[in-house]
Design brief:
Length: 134
């Protein structure tokens, strides 16, 4: 069973998404701000992180930068979640080290596709865009 760390400060979003992921067979651990998200990535060793970008304590960009700066958490795929598909968010996600990106409200089937791609090692949009085209 794959373990997903969901970092989300909005209680309703957190409850709804965690229940839907659990129903699909994922183990879900929760963090409510960026700082505890970074800490839980270290203590829980999740297989993947779903990172809201707008978070208290540390925002999702900075939390992702910290995860990607440390050898023990660098390998964990991070999917950025943002409320608005604002131009520039995708580039910011790439710069922060996110492996993929999706917008809220979450479309579960689309998000599950991205989760499964990263868990199976095929990478998401951003990860595959990074790979050299051989
Ligand atoms: Mn938020």
């Amino acid at each position: 069973m794959s373990k997903i760390l969901l970092v989300e400060d909005n209680e309703m979003n957190r409850d709804m998404l965690s229940r839907r992921l659990q129903r699909r067979g994922y183990e879900v651990v929760l963090a409510v701000d960026g700082q505890s998200g970074v800490e839980m990535a270290q203590t829980e060793s999740p297989d993947l992180v779903l990172m809201d970008m707008s978070l208290p304590a540390l925002d999702g960009w900075e939390a992702t930068r910290r995860l990607k700066a440390v050898a023990s958490t660098r390998h964990i795929p991070v999917i950025a979640l943002t409320a608005h598909a604002m131009s520039g968010d995708r580039e910011k996600a790439l710069e922060a080290g996110c492996d993929d990106y999706d917008t809220k409200p979450v479309e579960l089937v689309r998000l599950l596709g991205k989760i499964e791609a990263l868990l199976s090692g095929f990478g998401g949009d951003i990860a595959s865009a990074r790979k050299p085209t051989a």
